[in-house]
Sequence to fold (424 residues):
Amino acid sequence: MKVFKFGGASVKDASAVKNAGEILKQFEGEKLVVVISAMGKTTNGLEKVVNACYNKTNDALLILEEIKSFHEKIMGELFENDKHEVYQKVNNLFVEIEWVIEDEPRGYDFIYDQIVSFGELISTTIVSAWLNENGIGNNWLDIRDCLLTDNNYREAKVDWKQSELLFNEKIPALFASHPIVITQGFIGNTSENFTTTLGREGSDYTAAIIAHIMNAESVTIWKDVPGVLNADPKFFNDAQKLEQLSYLDAIELAYYGASVIHPKTIKPLENKNIPLHVRSFLQPTAKGTTIGKDLQTKPLVPSFIFKTNQVLISISAKDFSFIAEENLSAIFGTLAEIGIKLNLMQNSAISFSVCIDDDQFKVPKLIERLKEDYRVRYNSDLQLYTIRHYYPSTIETLSTGRDILLEQRSRNTAQLVMKAEEKK
Ligand code: ASP
Ligand code: MG
Fold:
């Protein structure tokens, strides 16, 4: 059995859905679990619905209507028969969203998951129906019947034991009638039957969870890039494709923010030596990149990860005493409580510095909390470069004439925090 994952861009309109169908046809007869994300930018749209609903701005239904027409247009282009049952099914899903909007308000994260999860339910309903209509027989699985999580809404943790039992019960039964199972990425369910999500861009992770549990032969993520590149072509002119990558390099690159693979994806695969292929849905016969056991990264060139909108916070004791274990423990407690991920940290005798994403809610909250006990200085509008497999010359080239605020090097990875370049 293989696991495929199609992200939002690969099902963003009717022709993209048809293209995904063509790809599946290349694998006719093989057992496939196909994990699909919400169509195009639907998740962002649903986030707006959540905000409107939570802030009671009265336009939640209006925004929802736009998302509905977007899907109706796609269905209109996919299904000739305008009485096709898919319309009713999708309509019912939208009605369910309206119920959530009209429900008694609960916590933000809870409402978020109850609403945003519909993006995947809708996309898979449409894709599954279209494939069945076009000779690609498949079963639709509501992944919430199998993927159990805790109730940490928006960042739910998988209950591996229960999920394993449920997947092993459901998937083979579905394969008995069709070789393809279509299911949702990104979402799960609590034991109390509330929907959860695994964190933005979590569909890759879903694919890895299923592959791990079902001992899949491989996972393939179909993307709009030819594979894993050594840099984001948006920022670097001569990005090149990596043919293969070690699990370790893949984890490190994803961890430092290479957006091509969700960081949680690699571990479950590595633990069972399941290879991960990253391939282009635009050139479905091209080889892409393979990440797997005993593979050395090839070509071994420096890989660049570039993050903008960074803030560097330096924390020192008010009385200039040392920043030692007790303070660090308290600082980390605060960071964890606010849910902040560190992109870089550095400690000296009297100060502790962290570089983090400049989140408009979390950062002011952090600074306010830290100021109760520490002296806090910060610098915003910064850029963070992480370079894996760097050469000294790579760093020189990057930083010539720039203001470096912090630099850190280990044997394989270098990180530089710099002021954003002046706009010319
Ligand atoms: N639809 C979700 C998101 O955009 C999950 C995913 O695409 O992986 O974050
Ligand atoms: Mg997406």
Q: What stands out?
A: Residues 340 and 362 are 7 Å apart (CA to CA). The domain at 2-223 is CATH 3.40.1160.10 (Carbamate kinase). The radius of gyration is 23 Å.
